[in-house]
Amino acid sequence: MMRISDFQLKDIVNVTNGKKLGRLTDIEINSATGAISSLIIEQSGKKFGLFGKEEEIIILWMNIVKIGGDVILVRYGEKSSEEEER
Fold first, then answer.
1. Which of 18, 42, 55, 76 could tie 25 with a disulfide, CB 3.0–4.6 Å?
2. What is the CATH number of domain 1-62?
3. 64, 40 in Cβ contact below 8 A?
4. CA–CA separation, 27 and 63 (whole Å)
5. 33: which DSSP letter?
6. Domain residues of the chain, as ranges?
7. Bridge pairing between strands 11-14 and 71-74
8. pLDDT in tens, 25-69
9. What is d(CA 25, CA 39) in angstroms, rounded to the nearest whole number?
10. Phi-psi group of 76: left, alpha or beta (phi > 0 → left; psi -120 to 50 → alpha; rest → beta)
C-alpha cells in the first residue's frame, strides 16, 4: 500500500519530452469509487512575477505510465490519436 506522502516525495516526469513537471501537491478522488482520478502538480517557477500564482497541471490517472521508486512517469501534452486525425 502507498500513502499520499509517498507520492509527494517523487519527481513527476513527462515521458513525451523527459522534462520534470514538478511535485505532487494534491490528488482528486472519485467519491463514488474511492479511486484516485487525477494528480495535481504545481509547476516550479512563477510565470507572473514575484507574487504570481504558480500554475497547476492536472494529470488524469489514465495518463500515468509508471510509478517507480523515485519518479512517476506521465504522459502530458501529447495529442490523442483522435485529435491527430482532424
1. 42
2. 2.30.30
3. no
4. 14
5. T
6. 1-62
7. parallel
8. 899 999 999 898 999 998 765 555 555 556 789 999 999 999 998
9. 8
10. beta
